Amino acid sequence: MSTAAESLKRLQTRQAERQARLDAAAQLEKVADGRDLDEKLAQAGIGATNKSNAQGVLARLQRQQGE
């Protein structure tokens, strides 16, 4: 029984390591193609995805006043 438990633990460890590698690769890909920066800019209200319009500008200014 301990052999099965040890095998399960090894499998879980390998799966966790593989998932960590996949996550790291995805993050590196985002950084390499600029998506990471685009996402950060969008969160800050800057960038092509956040086209300025009167309502958007007003909402951003109201959020800033609330801080």
What does this structure look like?
With 67 residues, this protein is mainly α. The protein has one domain (2-66). It contains three helices and no strands. The longest helix has 32 residues, at 2-33.
| Category by helix and strand content | mainly alpha
Instruction: Give the mean pLDDT.
Output: 85
Largest sheet: none
Number of helices: 3
Fraction in beta strands: under 5%
Number of strands: 0
What are the low-pLDDT stretches, counting only 5+ consecutive residues below 50?
none
List the helices and strands in order: HHH
Helix content: over 70%
The separation of the N and C termini measures 58 Å
Radius of gyration: 22 Å
How many structural domains can be distinguished in the coordinates?
A: 1
Oligomer: single chain
Overall 3D form: elongated
Task: Give a brief rundown of this model.
This protein is mainly alpha-helical and 67 residues long.
Draw up the topology in text:
Blueprint: H1 2-33, H2 35-43, H3 54-66
List keywords for this structure.
PspA_VIPP1; mainly alpha; 3 helices; 67 residues; Alpha helical protein
